Amino acid sequence: MNQDIPAQRRPAKPTPTPEMKAVPPEIAYTVSMPKPWTHLLEVEMNVKWEQMPEKADLKMPVWTPGSYLVREYARHVQNFSVRDASGTELPWTKTSKNTWTVESKGSKQITAKYQVYSNELTVRTNELNDEHAFWNNTATLFFIKGQLNVPSTIKVVPYGNWKVATGLPPVAGQENTFKAENFDILYDAPFEVSDFKEFKFDVLGKPHRFIISGEGNYDLPKLAADTKKICEVTHAIFGEFDFNDYTFIVNLRGGGGLEHLNSTALQINRFGFKPDSRYKGFLSLIAHEYFHAWNVKRMRPDVLGPFDYENENYTRLLWVAEGGTEYYSNLLLVRAGLITDKEFLRQRAAGIQALQNRPGRFETSLESASFDAWIKYYRQDENSINNQISYYDKGEIVHMMLDMAIRSASSGTKSLDDVMRYLWTEFYKKGKNFSPADYQKACELAAGKSLDDFFAKYVRGVAEIDYNAYANPFGLNLNVKTPNTGRAYIGADTTEADGRLTIRALAAGTPAYEQGLNTGDQIVAIDGYRASTAFLASYLNDKKPNDKVRLTVFRFDKLRDFDFTLGSDTRKDVDFSPVSGPTEEQKKLYKQLLNAEL
User: Fold this and answer.
1) Is 80 exceeded by the pLDDT of residue 364?
2) Which among 37, 174, 527, 597 is placed 20 to 30 Å from 465, CA to CA?
3) How many angstroms separate the CA atoms of 422 and 448, rounded?
4) pTM of the model
């Protein structure tokens, strides 16, 4: 040990020289799919590194930015092997759930080969079959411990005549080969490989394109024309694009979207483009993901980049990242002339109605919902209605009230647009992430006054929102009614499948919750008559609150009877209506917000 060596004989620490400076590894991937029906992506990772450690840790991310859940992508890796430049197999050990430690034995070049099972089509996972390949690089490609800032290339060997689409820039002169400056960029670019349709269009001089695999009831030229309008009104907020091109990857199954720096992955049922209401819903999704190219991909909340790919990245600002983006997604459709002001208000009223009928609004704040996304949002259960809110849904509503507060305080000279521009110039442009305090300050600068009461009640707290305090200056009343209080009510959220009527969720305070029904109970009969959704509605129509009935249910395969007292339906209906005799100021603010006459 060191203390046994005379001081004069201890080796001195070497003085650093230019020759000893850190040399980054050269990393090149190849992804192929020779048998797509097996759902196995074949991955090869080639590493050349003059400073290769004796034990090199190859790691798989555990989550994908934009989807805040640890998904354990390493569970899909199989048939791992690694060799040196001469082809000699090197020993390796699995040292954690997502770490393969390779003994390099002095080699300066190693090649790891493995397969990734890919049979789950979501925007944050992978799917390979005989129709296409779609993958996220976080769910596919290893990184080297401590080397997330290095560049890399990825070559795709497509099956048959399939083509390759991604947002990554191509490597000149190398077919189907793409480059990334660092792993935040590499991991941010999904791939679609198939015999897809491609439709290109320009937005203010910037190339944009749709990539769609398969047939459906979409009108691609119309979709591109409407999307172009969305892109233009988004650009009008910030005044610039910070990307060279943009790719919309659309898979015609499932639903949802995931944002990336210069692309997005979207999912919709192949026949989901009609009727018009469903098509507009998809346009809203497009607007949401496109707006993310500014809000969250570049204007970043505190910890969201550079990323830790092995652990949760906690932030209290997902209500801004997602809720704020959701508010804009629908506002952009108004500005683009794709929905009317009345449609916008009906949609927002429906969102408020859902929130007002959710007991969880008194249990969880927006900041808490953001912070706990990792353990709650993607793991909804039957009690979520009672102890949670969505930072998307309430975040959208609160941003609408916040926009109204800023506009009315400034007599229409400022808006939430000014907050977005402030974050763009003062944070993204200066290479900084923003904190909750920074966001509140940006809103207060736009409003020209303190908004601490607003943030304390509606962002950090769980106070009931005073909607009309913000809506009235715009000539609007929010009407909250309970129109069905005279109707008999059980109070269980049920679902019917294969002739079985099952309780899916129970809101706290309902008759079913208070009288001992459980989620998972199968309602077999009421007063001895076989229960179904239609029969229950008809039978209860002849009953009144406080009437007694007998409910027969299966619980854990055991038949149970409940003497049940019907309650009153206190669920709320919500809508917006114009005030009578609006002032000129109210008319002005309404038109500025929704580009229409009150």
Assistant:
1) yes
2) 597
3) 14
4) 0.94
